[in-house]
Every structure is written in C-alpha cells, then in structure tokens.
Write a structure and sequence with these properties.
This protein has about 170 residues and is an alpha+beta fold. The protein has helices at about 40-50, 60-70, 105-115, 125-130, 135-140, 145-165; strands spanning about 1-10, 15-25, 30-35, 75-85, 85-95, 100-105, 120-125, 135. It has a single domain (about 1-170), classed as Bifunctional nuclease domain (Roll), CATH 3.10.690.10. The protein has six helices and eight strands; from the N terminus they run E-E-E-H-H-E-E-E-H-E-H-E-H-H.
Length: about 170
C-alpha cells in the first residue's frame, strides 16, 4: 500500500470529473498519479472538503461524519483496494467502541469522508501500477486551460451554494 494525497479535482475532455491522487513520497513532475473518475456530486463534496469550505446545508459526507462522531467512532484510514474492469473499490476502516470495522465503499465516498476527518488515504500497489499515469501527463497540461477549468468549477460551486441558500423544501413536494 502507498499513502496518497488528493492533489485536485479535474474534468476530462468529456466533462466527467475525476479526482487525482499522488503518492506522498513523489515530488511534482515525477512518479505516478492515480486518476479516479467520480460523479459530479462527489466531486463537489470532495472539492468543498479539500478547500476547507462549508456547504450551507450538510452534504451526505458531512452527515456521515456527524453520525460517526455521535457513535464515538472514527475513520482510521481509507484504502483504494483494487480495480476490476475499470471499476475502483475501496474500504473505510473505522475504530468503534466495539472494535475495528472495515466497510466496503466507493472510492469517491471514502475519499470525501477522509477529507472531512483528515484520515490517511492509501492505494494498493497493484492499483497504482495498473491505473496510475505518469505525473507529467497532468503536470504538463496547458496552464491556461487548467486555469479556465478551475474558474469554471468555482463558478459551478458558487451557483450550487446560491441554490442551497435559496432552496425551500416545499419546492420538492408533489
């Protein structure tokens, strides 16, 4: 297993969000990086957590964090354990009053939770070897395109925050 850090959220040419993980021991411009494609809601949740921002209302991963705190449990670690036919699998290891528990999880949910509770994230060596890409493949991108992408993501996040501020639960009643 290799300990990694979240280095960012990106969007592929098909507008699909992905999270970029990089081993702690690798310097920028060297080594490998692991891209994992995720859904837009999970991307927003992870982005909010790594930026240290707060949503106007709790997101699902905020609720998960609150539930764990209420049960006197803590996330010990998150592991991206394997990849099968392009699908990544993860586990969340919890320390609870009744002992250690390991839960199956999607990597996006596990990483969103880890980002909120400052838990370490690990990737199996085989996963990094099989699905990792050279660091330069991402680091060498056109900086203007990356800046424009970041500005677009920020605008989407601002729009989402405005929506949450203005939404009324009665709007969803039939």
């Amino acid at each position: 297993m290799v300990q990694v850090r979240v280095i960012g959220i990106a969007v592929d040419p098909g507008a699909q969000p992905l999270i970029l993980l990089k081993p702690l021991t690798d310097e920028a411009g060297g080594g490998r990086m692991l891209p994992i494609w995720i859904g837009p809601q999970e991307a927003t949740s992870i982005f909010i957590a790594i930026e240290g921002a707060e949503a106007p209302r709790p997101l699902a991963h905020d609720l998960m964090k609150s539930l764990l705190e209420a049960l006197d449990a803590r996330v010990e670690r998150v592991d991206v354990t394997r990849i099968e036919e392009g699908t990544f699998y993860a586990e969340i290891t919890l320390q609870t009053p009744t002992g250690t528990r390991v839960l199956d999880s999607r990597p996006s949910d596990a990483i969103a939770l880890a980002a909120r509770v400052d838990a370490p994230i690990w990737v199996a060596d085989d996963v990094l070897e099989d699905a990792g890409i050279p660091d330069e493949a991402v680091e060498g991108r056109d900086r203007e395109a990356a800046d424009a992408e970041a500005a677009a993501e920020e605008a989407k996040l601002d729009e989402f925050k405005r929506f949450l501020d203005e939404v009324d639960p009665e709007d969803f009643q039939g």
